[in-house]
Amino acid sequence: xxxxxxxxxxxxxxxxxxxxxxxxxxxxxxxxxxxxxxxxxxxxxxxxxxxxxxxxxxxxxxxxxxxxxxxxxxxxxxxxxxxxxxxxxxxxxxxxxxxxxxxxxxxxxxxxxxxxxxxxxxxxxxxxxxxxxxxxxxxxxxxxxxxxxxxxxxxxxxxxxxxxxxxxxxxxxxxxxxxxxxxxxxxxxxxxxxxxxxxxxxxxxxx
Length: 207
What we know:
Elements lengths: L1 H7 L9 H13 L7 H7 L8 H4 L4 H11 L15 E2 L1 H10 L1 H4 L8 H6 L2 H8 L1 H7 L20 H9 L2 E2 L4 E2 L4 E2 L5 H20 L1
Antiparallel strand pairs: 1-2, 3-4
């Protein structure tokens, strides 16, 4: 995406900003044959849908979550559209809590309760994508490696983090370990899931 943007902007990315990203996201959503309805898209973009309509049509969490999943890059035409974020298993949470959330991100204790509740999803996502981050930022002096979590154990920090990474899972639809379930998914996503399961059963029976 970055290379395409650089090509379109002839190497000048200073023109990119939230306004342009918003327009691009709206164009993408409205261009989908089976995407969210126009009112949902307009409300997400904080646009008016009409003097009268604004009084009676209010934003719903389901449609907004659906739009958010699409804008996050999930493919709405596959069962994996219901993918859950990388998250720690119960054992993984125990290990991280022993380390201390404050050691991972400075200022954790001052976060509002709502932020503290969702915060475990941040380090789990970072650790899950750690190999990719190492590929993107191969130099030890890259800014990202200055995060507290990457230096909390000195030279052994990366090995300890990779050990914690073994207790991170990624599921689709539902996670029985943590009681999580995907939201913002249309009915067809469940149908695609069952179709995939049926294909596996048929293939296994054939073998």
